Amino acid sequence: MDAPDTYQRELKIDADPATVFAFFTDPQRLMRWVGVSADLEPRPGGLFLLDVDGGHVARGEFKEVVPVSRLAYSFGWQDRADFPPGSSLVEVDLTPTNGSTVVRFKHSGMPPADVPSHTSGWNHYLDRLILAASGRDPGPDPRRQPAR
């Protein structure tokens, strides 16, 4: 059973781990499945900054970067005193499996009241990742905020 402050999901992507890893560490590839802008420094202590939808900006710091197998970064929202930058942890483990990659995704340390909305958000965006990393077009993001 998951902890009340945690979202976890395992998914399979028809791509090698190096390709999937790049979709978490390269800003242009990241924005194919989530976000409208990103500033990433994928090294321990490096910046993780993502404007998810044109209105919600996530900020944190990379904690672990093991090329093509594991990432961990802190995560929180710039405009939320109750869920501030760096206050939770996202962990991504990549395992090659028969020409594909199994992704074990975990977001822990969230305020329990935020887990349902983040579960919905992560499910939406990880479904888009499956398409993008396997070479398909996830299409326009329906969660993106209208331009201001």
Strand order of the largest sheet: 1-7-6-5-4-3-2
The CATH architecture term is 2-Layer Sandwich
Number of helices: 3
Shape: globular
State the name of the first-level CATH class: Alpha Beta
Number of strands: 7
Radius of gyration computed on alpha carbons: 14 Å
In oligomeric terms, what are we looking at?
Answer: single chain
Written account of the structure:
- This protein is α+β, with helices and mostly antiparallel strands and 148 residues long.
- A hairpin with a 2-residue loop joins strand 6 and strand 7.
- The longest helix has 19 residues, at 115-133.
- The chain has one domain (7-133): 2-Layer Sandwich (Alpha-D-Glucose-1,6-Bisphosphate, Chain A, domain 4).
- The chain has helices at 17-25, 27-33, 115-133, and strands spanning 7-13, 37-40, 47-51, 57-66, 70-77, 88-97, 100-108.
- Strands 1-7-6-5-4-3-2 form a seven-stranded antiparallel β-sheet, with helices on one face.
SSE diagram, text form:
Blueprint: E1 7-13, H1 17-25, H2 27-33, E2 37-40, E3 47-51, E4 57-66, E5 70-77, E6 88-97, E7 100-108, H3 115-133
Antiparallel strand pairs: 1-7, 2-3, 3-4, 4-5, 5-6, 6-7
Summarize the structure.
The chain has 148 residues and is of the alpha+beta class. It has helices at residues 17-25, 27-33, 115-133, and strands at 7-13, 37-40, 47-51, 57-66, 70-77, 88-97, 100-108. Helix 1 crosses helix 2 and helix 2 crosses helix 3.
